[in-house]
Amino acid sequence: MTEPASVARIVVLISGSGSNLQALLDAAVDPAYGAQVVAVGADRDGIAGLDRADAAGVPTFVERVRDHDTREDWDRALTAHVAKHQPDLVISAGFLKLVGPHFLAAFGDRYLNTHNTLLPAFPGIHGPRDALAYGVKLTGATLFFVDAGMDTGPIVAQVAVPVLDDDDVDALTERIKEAERRQLVEQVGRLVREGWTITGRKVTVP
Ligand code: GRF
């Protein structure tokens, strides 16, 4: 079992607007939440999420794949950068890169991702678009521990969101994101305060 820390250290990885990051930053203001965001990492510059971290006084770093000779070098550099902050939990919140074996060896039992569909349906970066095109009536968001696959790891929690008749991709994406942020804050708090066990595909919180 991964035991709870007194105040858990969280590193958040982002590639975009960072609204999930913001939800965590806001929750962590309350000491009773049980976690603080100690660093924010990104795979690109110039994104709103990095400004959110700056505004909250949280240190940031950027590791771009193209600044490294190989993807493996990038994976090592990202791993080293995250490790410096000694995280109890690493959260991919809209981070648009699959990490490699070095990262998973270091953080595989404590690396969470939030995805904007009900997995295993519609993995990948166009989840809401694919769900809408398929015509499902119910979709949602999934929080899971990352493994070596794409959106395939053990599931921590899921929240369902209805698809409305007049939805377009933007409207559906936004409705999912609201539920997704609530779920992320709630479940991360629960994990850091109570600890967790991963047995095969099953995640349990005592
Ligand atoms: C989230 O909906 C996540 O599921 C998807 O990208 C979105 C990130 O949004 N992969 P934000 O950057 O946290 O606003």
UniProtKB/TrEMBL annotation:
Tell me which Gene Ontology terms the entry assigns under biological process: 'de novo' IMP biosynthetic process
Q: Active site annotated at which positions?
A: 115 (proton donor)
Catalytic activity annotated for this protein?
Answer: N(1)-(5-phospho-beta-D-ribosyl)glycinamide + (6R)-10-formyltetrahydrofolate = N(2)-formyl-N(1)-(5-phospho-beta-D-ribosyl)glycinamide + (6S)-5,6,7,8-tetrahydrofolate + H(+)
Residues the record lists as binding (6R)-10-formyltetrahydrofolate? 71, 96-99, 113
- Family annotation (HAMAP family): PurN
InterPro entries from the entry?
Formyl_transf_N, Formyl_transf_N_sf, GART, GART_AS
Q: What is its EC number?
A: 2.1.2.2
Q: Under the GO molecular function aspect, what terms does this record hold?
A: phosphoribosylglycinamide formyltransferase activity
Question: Site described as Raises pKa of active site His, positions?
Answer: 151
Give the UniProt keywords, A-Z. Purine biosynthesis, Transferase
Question: Transmembrane: is it a keyword of this entry?
Answer: no
User: What pathway is it annotated to?
Assistant: Purine metabolism; IMP biosynthesis via de novo pathway; N(2)-formyl-N(1)-(5-phospho-D-ribosyl)glycinamide from N(1)-(5-phospho-D-ribosyl)glycinamide (10-formyl THF route): step 1/1
Record: residues binding N(1)-(5-phospho-beta-D-ribosyl)glycinamide: 18-20
Q: What class of enzyme is it?
A: transferase
Entry protein name: Phosphoribosylglycinamide formyltransferase
Q: Which family does it belong to?
A: Belongs to the GART family.
Q: Entry's Pfam families? A: Formyl_trans_N
Using the record's annotation, list all stretches that form the Formyl transferase N-terminal domain.
Answer: 9-187
Q: Its function?
A: Catalyzes the transfer of a formyl group from 10-formyltetrahydrofolate to 5-phospho-ribosyl-glycinamide (GAR), producing 5-phospho-ribosyl-N-formylglycinamide (FGAR) and tetrahydrofolate.
